[in-house]
């Protein structure tokens, strides 16, 4: 095998009740990447389309993630990479995670899968740090594992793959504005009320239970964010109007995807998701803000080989 | 049916990662209560053995819980109650919850179970408030439901019954000292670090997942308390020594039961639990603090009729 083409899915992190821990993967929305084996050690990024990103390995998320994995594997050869970005940089759908996920997943394919998906996530994090300034895996894990994932701990690093109820869809609305992850971090307080922390953790626990039992009512009750949304919603124009419409149109819950500006509405069934999409499109089409929107099944697989 | 005898189990609340939300019921350790139908409306407490508690209905946990339920049901008759307390008041094993649980469970039996266990928990909380000053259900829910329970929300009130791995035992060590719930509350800060809140919620989510998948390793990794134990452990003499011994002897995790002073060690298998008990007994037997200790299976049922 000399060349491989990978699809790495977009992801929604945080999912309201699971700030910095929970995420899920989208179906058919994501980036593409070609990896080619080369005799020289290291990672060489030869082409990027769809976004203005550095080709220099040490400044590129995919480059750094790939290098971290190569160092661990101590290979005497390397890879050149072509990246086709379909996901907006800083759009809130795990664009940088998709790049990091694709490269570590792809290298592992070349080697016939010596590493577990959890190990791949660990090395992918080294790349994520280039984009966001800190190592985190709440987008990366679902992009690699697929479905819903939970980071239970960073030390030791542990990812739990959660079950995926069969009829879950998501509506994504992505305003064409910029919310820098750094700003979205800085707007959060260092401390929160203990009672809010408990309410949030009860909701996360309820959501996890709802995934195992396919209890859509419990999922809906649990999709709340009392810790982060109160601060970050101010960064996204028309957030309240969009949320009101999503809830009115029977979504299970609505919130900020990652650090925004994308927003997500989890829905039971595709028809509901499409109705929610119409209502959300209308909210923004009545404004001067450009958007794009998607309806997607939650994907039960993460990165995959497409040729 | 004119008379019924109820067993209401002792419970462990908080369980490290689930402060104010998670709890479980013990097997064969608990209080007993006789309810007798009487023509007069209301609750009449005629006898309490094993503890010095008020017979006056409005000052007694069982009395207030029973009255709250009777008012809801609008019955034209009442109940007299005899209570045999086996659980130490303020011992950290849900003594007051057991009293409240027994009376609401018992009344529901007389009426052929019109109310769900969740509704019974709701009315039982009215009694709990007498003992602790606020309505909470983290002991009450497992005493009524059995097994592990999760309070996902108080408004709307919602209890989720969690699955119970087949080989879970608990070792309880109960020092004969007093820790007032009020003091244990007041020692906690109003605010906590956001990063600690996230770590704790990741652990709770991991624990819930571990219960569904019978993943004892994940249960062990998740049984941590970064929010509450750092403050409350100072209220319990020899806590650190006990914890060290419990971990050294292969318990899955060790922590404060409720607001203390009881402590619990969750264990895989009865033999491990007995070894942990020996080690914990030794820690306190070398001191001047009297204790009692138990090894118990986690009970898959809550309150039950014993005659």
Secondary-structure topology with pairs:
Two copies of one chain form a homodimer.
Chain A: E1 3-13, E2 22-38, E3 42-49, H1 61-73, E4 78-84, H2 95-110, H3 117-132, H4 140-145, E5 148-154, E6 157-162, E7 168-175, H5 181-186, E8 191-193, H6 194-213, H7 216-222, H8 229-232, H9 239-248, E9 253-256, E10 263-268, H10 270-285, E11 291-297, E12 304-305
Parallel strand pairs in A: 3-4
Antiparallel strand pairs in A: 1-2, 1-12, 2-4, 2-5, 5-6, 7-10, 7-11, 9-10
Helix pairs in contact in A: 1-2, 1-3, 2-3, 6-7, 9-10
Describe this protein's structure.
Two copies of one chain form a homodimer. Chain A has helices at 61-73, 95-110, 117-132, 140-145, 181-186, 194-213, 216-222, 229-232, 239-248, 270-285; strands at residues 3-13, 22-38, 42-49, 78-84, 148-154, 157-162, 168-175, 191-193, 253-256, 263-268, 291-297, 304-305. Chain A is α+β, with helices and mostly antiparallel strands. Chain A has two domains: 3-163, Ribosomal Protein S5, domain 2; 168-297, Alpha-Beta Plaits (2-Layer Sandwich). In chain A, strands 1, 2, 3, 4, 5, 6 and 12 form a seven-stranded mixed beta sheet that branches. A four-stranded antiparallel beta sheet of chain A has the order 9-10-7-11, with helices on both faces. In chain A, α2 (95-110) packs antiparallel against α3. The longest helix of chain A has 20 residues, at 194-213. Chains A and B meet through β5, β6, β8, α6 and α7 of A and β5, β6, β8, α6 and α7 of B. β8 of chain A pairs antiparallel with β8 of chain B.
């Amino acid at each position: 095998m000399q060349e491989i083409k990978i699809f790495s899915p977009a992801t929604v992190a945080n999912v309201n009740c699971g700030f910095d821990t929970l995420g899920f993967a989208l179906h058919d929305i994501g980036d593409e990447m070609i990896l080619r084996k080369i005799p020289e050690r290291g990672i060489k990024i030869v082409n990027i389309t769809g976004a203005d990103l550095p080709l220099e390995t040490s400044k590129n998320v995919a480059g750094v993630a790939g290098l971290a994995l190569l160092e661990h594997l101590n290979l005497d050869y390397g890879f050149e990479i072509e990246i086709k970005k379909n996901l907006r940089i800083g759009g809130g759908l795990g664009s940088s995670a998709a790049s990091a996920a694709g490269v570590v997943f792809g290298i592992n394919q070349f080697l016939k899968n010596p590493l577990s998906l959890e190990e791949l996530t660990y090395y992918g994090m080294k790349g994520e740090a280039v984009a966001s300034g800190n190592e985190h895996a709440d987008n990366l894990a679902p992009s690699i594992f697929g479905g819903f994932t939970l980071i239970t701990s960073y030390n030791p690093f542990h990812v739990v793959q959660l079950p995926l109820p069969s009829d879950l869809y998501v509506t994504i609305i992505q305003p064409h504005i910029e919310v820098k992850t750094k700003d979205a971090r800085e707007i959060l307080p260092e401390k929160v009320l203990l009672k809010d922390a408990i309410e949030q953790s009860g909701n996360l626990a309820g959501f996890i239970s709802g995934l195992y039992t396919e209890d859509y009512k419990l999922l809906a009750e649990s999709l709340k964010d009392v810790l982060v949304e109160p601060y970050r919603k101010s960064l996204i124009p028309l957030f309240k109007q969009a949320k009101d419409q999503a809830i009115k149109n029977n979504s299970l819950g609505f919130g900020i995807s990652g650090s925004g500006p994308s927003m997500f509405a989890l829905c039971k069934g595709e028809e509901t998701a499409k109705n929610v999409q119409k209502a959300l499109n209308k909210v923004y089409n009545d404004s001067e803000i450009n958007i794009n929107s998607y309806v997607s099944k939650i994907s039960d697989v993460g990165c995959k080989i497409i040729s």
